Amino acid sequence: MAHILLTAGPTRAFIDDVRYLTNASSGRMAAALAAAALARGHQVTIVSGPVHVAYPKAARVVPVVTTAEMLTAALGELP
What's the whole-model pTM score? Predict the structure, then answer.
């Protein structure tokens, strides 16, 4: 069994207190990949920006908002 780490969803890179750059990621691909991996008996962790998709309940989800938070969380999940 493998432990699979997925990153998903949009993140924000703040330019200043009001403006930020983002992306339109929905998280749907990560949800599909997580479901497939879980069905094969793997452990799954998803580091995700804010999304409206429901991730599989068996997946561990680490919520983030910024690109820096995503990097820190993803690196923190690695051995």
Answer: 0.92
